[in-house]
């Protein structure tokens, strides 16, 4: 995000747009529903197939920023607190881009959001010609299970990660556009390539959904652990709640804290000693010096490498579910970082 004065930056963009013939742009918003509002605009002005100016501006919305959007984008309420509102940015932005070709990834969404904001301010709708790299991608990779920006970059061998920030996404969209428009014919993925793409997309979607739901759930809760913190390296990322096998055998320990308790635990490496996954690596979870259980083999694979060889101090949670309360059972879920990317 630029540290330039918003007024100076906006007028510089308007002036530079007079020398452009296209704009690649992206918006970040408070959601995707009818009540969504723009919180960031990123734009690359293009002249004769060359980027000539970048514009990136946060926008303070009139509504509360959902926790899930902060999880997705990294944008916080404090980031937006001193930023201009839509009334300052949108009218001038729309005036600047009206003569230009609009380029974006799923560009119809971003045009709709501009028109939502503009409509609230009495601005004429944007109806420019546009090019959508998502549509181009579907044409060039007809059997690709997903044409998200991240997956299109993978298909085009662009080794970057989608950050879900407006200017970064706009730059990456431009890279994709440059490659897609020079493809001479569609590429049909092999069965293996299509399956890998499907799995990558499913894993990304699952991580995003879990992170959004989890951050929304945690946004109004005090997650401070109530027990003494053990010594050791701390990993306190709480993106995935992982089940612990064996926790029901330690009701005496868990019941001391009760439902909805957040707790420090120690996590160490071990081996599953019985059952169908005997010999498989696992992570052992101990609470107040008592080993409560181990995470399942599948979860160990999904989070492999996240805990150092010497182990770590992490956070766990006793869920407050209706089913557990009715049965009088206390369970423990280990809070872990997001699952690793899986290419297979």
TrEMBL record:
Keywords: Exonuclease, Hydrolase, Nuclease. SMART domains: EXOIII (SM00479). It comes from the Bacteria. GO terms for biological process: DNA replication proofreading. Pfam families: RNase_T. The keyword Nuclease applies. Residues 21-186 form the Exonuclease domain. One of its GO terms (molecular function) is 3'-5' exonuclease activity. One of its GO terms (cellular component) is cytosol. Gene3D superfamilies: Ribonuclease H-like superfamily/Ribonuclease H (3.30.420.10). The keyword Hydrolase applies. This is DNA polymerase III polC-type. The lineage of its organism: Bacteria, Bacillati, Actinomycetota, Actinomycetes, Bifidobacteriales.
């Amino acid at each position: 995000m630029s540290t330039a004065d918003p007024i100076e930056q906006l007028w510089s963009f308007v002036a530079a747009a007079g020398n452009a013939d296209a704009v690649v742009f992206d918006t970040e918003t408070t959601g995707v529903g009818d009540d969504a509002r723009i919180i960031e605009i990123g734009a690359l002005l293009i002249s004769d197939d060359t980027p000539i100016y970048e514009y990136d501006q946060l926008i303070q919305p009139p509504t509360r920023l959902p926790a899930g959007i902060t999880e997705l984008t990294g944008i916080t309420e404090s980031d937006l607190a001193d930023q201009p509102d839509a009334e300052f940015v949108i009218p001038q932005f729309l005036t600047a881009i009206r003569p230009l070709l609009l380029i974006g990834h799923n560009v119809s969404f971003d045009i709709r959001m501009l028109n939502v904001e503009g409509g609230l301010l009495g601005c004429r709708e944007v109806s420019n010609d546009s090019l959508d790299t998502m549509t181009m991608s579907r044409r060039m990779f007809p059997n690709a299970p997903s044409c998200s920006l991240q997956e299109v970059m993978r298909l085009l061998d662009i080794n970057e990660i989608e950050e879900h920030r407006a200017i970064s996404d706009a730059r990456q969209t431009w890279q994709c556009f440059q490659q897609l428009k020079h493809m001479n014919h569609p590429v049909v993925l092999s069965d293996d390539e299509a399956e890998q793409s499907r799995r990558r997309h499913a894993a990304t979607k699952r991580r995003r959904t879990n992170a959004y739901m989890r951050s929304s759930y945690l946004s109004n809760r005090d997650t401070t652990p109530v027990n003494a913190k053990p010594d050791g390296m701390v990993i306190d990322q709480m993106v995935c709640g992982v089940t612990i096998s064996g926790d029901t055998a330690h009701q005496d320990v868990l019941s001391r804290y009760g439902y909805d308790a957040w707790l420090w635990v120690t996590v160490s490496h071990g081996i599953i000693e019985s059952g169908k996954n005997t010999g498989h690596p696992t992570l052992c979870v101990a609470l107040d010096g008592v080993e409560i259980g181990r995470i399942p083999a599948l979860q160990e694979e999904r989070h492999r490498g996240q805990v150092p060889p010497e182990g770590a101090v992490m956070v766990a949670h006793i869920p407050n579910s209706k089913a557990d309360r009715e049965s009088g059972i206390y369970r423990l879920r280990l809070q872990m970082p997001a699952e690793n990317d899986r290419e297979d």
